[in-house]
Amino acid sequence: MNISRVRNGVLFISIGAVLLLNNLDYVSWSVWVKILSLWPVLLIAIGIELIFKKTLLSFLTILSPILIFLAILGPVWTDYTEWRVDYQVEGYKWTEPLDQKIKKAYLRIDLKAGDLNVSSDSVNLINADLDYWSQKPYTSYRYSEEDNLALLRIKESRRDWKDWVWKGWRKKRWGINLSNQVPFDLKLYSKASNAYLYLSDILVDDLFLDLKVTDLKLKLGKQDYIKVKIESDASKIRIQIPSESGIKINSDAKLSSTQFSGDISIYSEGDRYESLNYQSSPYRIDLQLDGAVSKLVVETY
Questions:
Q1: CA-wise closest residue to 204 among 191, 221, 229
Q2: pTM for this structure?
Q3: What are the tens digits of pLDDT across the range 174-194?
Q4: Which residues contact 6 (CB under 8 A, 6 or more apart)?
Q5: Sequence spans of domains, the chain
């Protein structure tokens, strides 16, 4: 057995495994500080090879790849404290009162696993009930007096292994109510979840959705102009619009099927769809669709 080859293989596999866990948000990037602080282990491992190679104790050279493996993946184990937490889902409530000075609000939501429901609130700027497994979600609010803008952020602190193992049991749910008094620019990033966005009573100027493996239901209201961009993979998307609204869809997505129902007549040309009332309607919706969508349903209410 060529022990140096085994050692190099273990080194690259271990580094690759840690980088993969970093990208999946199972382990924080700060773990590399601990790993790099153990760099002398590499010298010890090579020293063991030099001492015992081609001797009667050559079997001890197997300690070289074992030490490297432990030095790289050992800090990963200690860093991932979520492996030792309870399964109990906890709840966090976040509320920001509505300041009448606010002219516009920007909200970004990052939910990696779970169900998301967004609807309107007539009292507060935002009122959110957020489930989590071990670490409370990150929330922030900042108000700019210079231009009377509100900047809001909700982010899941870290993806937990239980999000995948127990996805069908005690799944996290986020319920977020937004003010119907001020216009919003809304950005949503979500993976492995269902999203139900009832925005018919919310003033939405710009809506951006980045969704993976998601069942999306989107209800829009009567507004002069709404810009919507959806980047989605392997998702069923159902969009409800007022019967008086006109809609234009530009699709770069791989659509498996499309369905238009209700009081809507569509003219299509290639990957472009436009309702016959789009030019004359006082309420217009521009939709840009990217990714791969199993089914797109557009209907009126």
A1: 221
A2: 0.69
A3: 999 999 999 999 999 987 678
A4: 62, 64, 65
A5: 3-79, 90-300
